[in-house]
Design a protein that fits this description.
2 domains; 14 strands; Bact_solute-bd_prot1; signal; SBP; Extracellular solute-binding protein family 1
């Protein structure tokens, strides 16, 4: 009897255990799934190991902009730390820094490159192609074509343009009125430019120049390239990767500049010395200025707002469409970077609408997002500036030719310009001599065939 009772109690105990195992007091499969999900995050980047990337940029008065953008990026991406280094603004000094970084293995993950560097350094494989990143970028169709096309070398996108730097032609509306010209109708081609420049030129009773109708520099800088592009000519044939200084349209462009200088006169000055530019001193009616100069001029002399406006890109004698000179700054990724994905994430962030608009409002940089263009034009119009004309410089503009040896050709072109403007050689002879010298130099160094 006792044995039967013990067996019965054992069975009851086992039954209770089984029921407990099937009861709700245990952890269900749903609860386990919740536990797994609680250990992860939809923002998977937050679970990655912390990463430090380096960001280098030339300091062109916009250091604060970069630092603010980086700080906000780090706030939104706590596992990515960005070490920011501001570089000198002169390209030769930047080259020295980059050469040292390349030798020491400290090349920046993200580097803000001038257009020139796409050819000189991109051709050496220093920048990683961005094509795959851009192809997956949700906002890729909102970016201007020029921001992509100008950053390509041999078909690969090496730099994403975010900072157009057009060389604008500007004019004094009050001087136009004084000369009997319509202040709201600037020249549209070289014939009108010549006519207006002559009317706008002022000389005193002795024949001494008081105000130039159009200030033409004695040192070219980008001036000759601008004129050649307006005339539909080539400075360097990028398709053939060959100098083109003796292009007939280039010769015609230099001849036009020299003839105008001899006709209306001019004040000796160089683009390398901003304080010498006659337009800034009120000594010329039409001039070429980059956006930084124009922005600084308005800051220093706010009373000039409403008196200065932008001439839309001109068409030269042999040109068949509007053209202009437009440089760029680019975001690039170092080809040796171990954190390319994080580097692209920083670039993508800084290409956002908020930061491109901030760059415009603080530094007068034209926007490269199509969705911001209407606001950009409207805002400039409210400042009594032709916003549409400025955008045309970005749309129709083209910067330095992208080759590894552009700077060499520029050196010979500068020499030709100075020889012609000083009447030591005819424009044709100066450019033909420059072409021969450039080709000989490049061949001697094995840079072209």
């Amino acid at each position: 009897m006792v044995k039967k009772i013990l067996v019965f109690m054992l069975c009851v105990s086992m039954l209770i255990g089984l029921l407990a195992g099937c009861g709700s007091s245990g952890t269900s499969s749903d609860d386990k799934a919740d536990d797994v999900n609680a250990g992860s995050s939809t923002g998977t980047d937050n679970n990655k190991e912390p990463v430090t990337i380096t960001f280098w940029a030339p300091n062109e008065q916009n250091e604060q902009f970069y630092k603010e953008a980086v700080a906000e990026f780090e706030k939104q991406n706590p596992n990515i730390k960005v070490e920011t280094t501001m570089l000198p603004s002169i390209n030769t000094e930047i080259d020295t820094k980059l050469n040292a970084a390349k030798l020491s293995g400290t090349y920046p993950d993200v580097f803000v490159a001038y257009l020139l560097f796409i050819g000189t350094r991109g051709s050496k494989g220093e920048f990683a192609p961005l094509d795959d990143y851009v192809s997956k970028w949700a906002d890729k169709d909102d970016i201007l074509d020029s921001a992509y096309n100008s950053g390509k070398y041999e078909g690969k996108l090496l730099g994403l343009g975010f900072f157009p730097a057009p060389m604008l032609m500007v004019y004094r509306k009050d001087y136009f009125e004084e000369a009997g010209l319509d202040p709201n109708k600037p020249p549209t081609n070289w014939n009108e430019l010549k006519e207006y420049a002559i009317k706008l030129t002022k000389k005193d009773a002795s024949g001494k120049l008081v105000r130039a109708g159009w200030d033409i520099p004695i040192q070219s800088g980008t001036f000759l390239q601008t004129m050649v592009r307006q005339n539909g000519g080539l400075y360097i044939d990028e398709e053939k990767q060959y100098p083109a200084l003796d292009d007939p349209k280039a010769i015609e462009a230099l001849k036009f500049a020299v003839d105008m200088y001899n006709t209306i006169g001019g004040f000796p000055y160089s683009y390398n010395k901003l304080e010498e530019v006659p337009f800034i001193q009120g000594k010329s009616a039409i001039s070429a200025m980059n956006i930084t100069w124009l922005n600084n001029l308005f800051k220093e002399k706010p009373d000039l707002r409403g008196k200065i406006d932008i001439v839309p890109p001109l068409v030269g004698y042999s040109g068949d469409k509007k053209s202009a000179f437009n440089g760029y700054r680019y975001y690039t990724i170092g080809n040796d970077s171990k954190h390319k994905d994080e580097a692209w994430k920083l670039i993508e962030f800084m290409m956002g609408k908020e930061w491109l608009w901030k760059n415009y409002k603080e530094y007068f940089v034209p926007v490269v997002r199509k969705s911001l263009q209407n606001d950009f034009v409207s805002d400039l119009n409210n400042q009594q500036l032709n916003g549409k004309a400025l955008l045309e410089y970005v749309e129709y503009g083209h910067g330095e030719a992208i080759t590894p040896w552009t700077s060499i050709v520029n050196r010979y072109a500068e020499q030709a310009y100075q020889e012609a403007i000083s009447n030591n050689k005819t424009p044709e002879q100066a450019l033909k001599d420059a072409q021969k010298a450039a080709v000989d130099d490049l061949r001697k160094n094995g840079l072209i065939k």
